[in-house]
Amino acid sequence: MDLSVVIPVYNEAENLPLLHEELEESIRKLPLKHEIIYVDDGSTDNSFNVLKDIFNNCESGCVHVIRFRKNYGQTAAISAGFDHVHGNIIITMDADLQNDPHDIPLLLEKINEGYDLVNGWRHDRKDTFLNRRLPSIIANKTISFITNIKLHDYGCTFKAFQKDVVKNIKLYGEMHRFIPAIASYYGVSIAEVKVNHRPRKYGKTKYGLSRTLKVVLDLITVKFLLSYSTRPIQVFGRLGIYCGMTGLGVTLYLVFMRQFYGIPMGNRPILQFAILLIFIGLQFISLGLIAELQSRTYHEAQQKPIYSIKKILTRE
Question: What is the C-alpha to C-alpha distance for residues 138 and 127, in angstroms, rounded to an integer?
Fold first, then answer.
């Protein structure tokens, strides 16, 4: 299998027939053996029946349908698609017709240049400004700054991957938007391509400002995983030392003032604050040591390497 297309679906019954028609039209022009995997994320409309019709009418057998028992979210749907792909190249895209299937060759062209991951960029986005585009601009700049992976459009589902990239990625929460950042942990090469973005014809968007808090929390998780998952003591130990040293310094200052200037300490709140900082410092260091033990257990139990090899040249 050369190409796998993974499409998460949630209440997109009206869009699916036209989407599949455009997909087949676009992929048919490519000299690639392909499959299309639709993941029905617990749709409550007629989406699954439409997908069954598409499946039954596909004589080539290239269509596969996965149906969830309930709505688990886009991240889970994409992850399920990754678990069932057979292609050497995997493309993900939305089912709402806003991603243009005719842009698939653009992504494949970059993959053929040697990139491991190609991210779509909706440079002329057809969404409302205040509640969709503005939050997206802020989020993209924030994510790029924190993860140090500079992309214009983290929220674009339209992406292409080499198979070995997706097999190393485990997704949770709302982390599908952070796939480029997570993949960067393995040293993959990432490119970005401008893709066409179309206004929604049918149905309504499933995303809004309510997801902001989830994205922020997942961003904190991703930053920790990228920077400190194998050395958590560097985070908690550093915080512990800062707090402990600050508390100790304040305490020594108060002792000096008491000994040489006779200034009483017993009724000063700053003394209690200094003692609190010392204990917080000790707790942070203890937490770091516990996290170190858990990190080693996690990597050793799963035989998860702390490095990623791209190629080995050797003579035996």
Answer: 15
* pLDDT at residue 170, rounded to an integer: 78
Sign of the CA dihedral with 118 first, then 124, 126, and 127 last:
positive
Spatial distance between the Cα atoms of 194 and 121, rounded to a whole number of angstroms: 5
Is the pLDDT higher at 83 or at 204? 83
Give the pLDDT score at 235.
83
- The secondary structure of 201-265 as a DSSP string is -SS--S--GGGHHHHHHHHHHHHHHHHHTT-THHHHHHHHHHHHHHHHHHHHHHHHHHHHH----
3-state class (DSSP) for residue 197? strand
Place of tokens 């560097």: 234
Strands 3-9 and 89-92: parallel
State the average pLDDT over residues 154-162: 92
CA atoms within 13 A on the CB side of 101: 22
Residue count of the chain: 316
Q: Report, as an integer, the average pLDDT of 86-92.
A: 94
- Ranges of each domain in the chain: 3-228, 233-301
Topology of the domain comprising 3-228: Spore Coat Polysaccharide Biosynthesis Protein SpsA; Chain A (3.90.550)
pTM of the shown model: 0.77
Give residue 281's pLDDT: 94
CB of 145 within 8 A of CB of 228?
A: no
